[in-house]
Amino acid sequence: MSSLSLFFSFFTFLFFLSFSAFSQSPLNRPSNIGLGVFVDFIDAEYEMNFSQITGAEEGEKQYEINVVSSVMLNQLEDGYILFDLNQDIQEVKIDGVVTNITQVKTPNHGRYVSQFHQVSTLTDKGSHTLEVKSKMQIWTKNFGLWLNDWADREMLELYVVSNLQYDQYPMTFSFNDKDFFKDNYVFTNGTEVEDEDSIIAQFPEFSNASSVFLHLVPSENLTGLYETTYSTLDGREMNVTLYSDNQSYSSSEELEEIYKKRVVPAVKDLEETWGPWPHESLVLVFDQCGRSMEHSGAARICRYAAIEHELTHSYWGRSIFPADGNSSWFDEGIATWIDHSRIMEVRSSYIDTDLSNNGEYFRATNQSSYTSGARFLIQVGYLLNAEEQVEKTNNALMTKCMKSFYDKYAFKTMTSQNILDHIVTDCSDGTKAEEIRNLFTQYIF
Ligand SMILES: [Zn+2]
C-alpha cells in the first residue's frame, strides 16, 4: 500500500469513527453462500405511494401503500449485505441491478428468534446503493409511522428498509401525491419541506430506527389542537404541539390545561437535571392506543399517567439511543427511576437477571426493564454511596454519574458495556470497580 492510499485509508477510518457507531453492530453472519455483512447507511430516501382500496362507515379506510426505499450505504468488508424490512418485498436492486434475497433467521439461546434479509449478490467493500420496492396494506383513519420497541422488528423496518438500531443516518420521507392528503394535518418531529406534489419530511443525521415521528390526520378526525411556544433553558423559542385524534380524548381546552399543569413542569424539571431540551420541537399526540411510545422530541400518549415518563425518553432513549435490544433495558430503567424522583429505595427488592442477554439480533426491550432496570441502577447507586446513609434520599451522586453519561452520549447510540465502563471510570474510585462489574455480570449480561 502506498503512503497516499495509507493516508486515504486513515481518513476513511476517521470518517467511520466519527459518523457511525459501527462497532455496535451485531457480528457479521456466515451463510452457505458467504459472509453476510452489516453495513453503514449514509443516507436514505423513502417514497410512499398511497391508494385507497376500500372505506368503512366509521371512517377507517383500507390503504395499499407502495414503498420505494433508496439507500446509500458503505460496506466495511466484502460480503452479502444484510438489511431489514418487515413487509412484502417486491424487488431488490444493488447498484441498479436486480438481485434476490434470502431471509435469515437467528435463533438466540433457544428463547428468541429474530430475522432480517441477506442480498444474494456479492459486493465489495465500499459505497453501494440499495433500492427496495415493497407493498403493504393497512386499515386506518390516520396514517402514522407507529414504531414499537416492545416487539421484535417493529421499528422503522415495519414500513421501510431500515438498518438495526446501531446505525444513525439522515432520512427523507415523501408521501405521494399531495392531493391525496389535501385535507390532512401533518405532525412530525422532522422538518417539512415545501413541495408542490408531495408531502416531504426530512430527519436529521442522528436519526435511527426508533426516532422518527410522522403522522397524518384528516381535518375531520382532529378533535383537539393546542399550539404554543416554550422558552428552553438555552433560550430558544421552541414550537410545541399537542393534539388529539380521537373523540374520547382531549379537546383543545383540555390539551391547553394538560400542557400547563403537566407538560411544562415536567420539561422544566428535566431541563434542570439533564440540560436544555435536546430537540428542535415537542409534539405530543393524545390517542386511543394500547401503549404509549416515545420518539425524539415527540410521543404518542395513550393515558395521561404516561406523560412525564414519555417526556423523559426524549433525553433517555431518544437522544441517547440504545444501540440494540440488549441495551434498551437502560432507558426504561432510568426513566422509571426518574419517574420515582430518583429516590434511593427498594434496596433488597428482587431484580430480574440477564436484562441484556436476549441474543444480539433481537430488537425489543426486555419487559422486566422498567422496575428491574430501576432497581439495578439503585443497587449501583448504593455501591457508589456505600459509606453514606442515603436510603430514601435523592441520590445526588448517581444523578451526577448519569448526567456525565448523558453529556458523553447525547445524540449517539450506546450499549450496556458503555454504561458499565462509564460508571467504573467516571463515577467510582478504583476500589469498587470489581463489585460494579460483578453486579453487571449478575443482573445485566
Ligand atoms: Zn418507557
Description:
The protein has about 450 residues and is of the alpha+beta class. The chain folds into 2 domains: about 190 residues, tricorn interacting facor f3 domain (Immunoglobulin-like); about 130 residues, Orthogonal Bundle (Neutral Protease, domain 2). The protein is built from 8 helices and 22 strands. Strands 7-6-10-4-3-11-14-13 form an 8-stranded mixed β-sheet, with no helix packed on it. A hairpin with a 4-residue loop joins β1 and β2. The two termini are about 40 Å apart. The N terminus is likely disordered. It binds zinc ion (ZN). Zinc ion binds next to α4.
Query: What proportion of the residues form beta strands (DSSP E)?
Result: 25-35%
Given the helix and strand composition, which structural class is it? alpha+beta
Averaged pLDDT: 89
Name of the CATH architecture of the largest domain: Sandwich
The small-molecule ligands in this entry are: zinc ion
What is the string of helix and strand elements?
Answer: HEEEEEEEEEEEEEEEEEHEEEHEHHHEHH
User: Termini, distance in Å?
Assistant: 41 Å
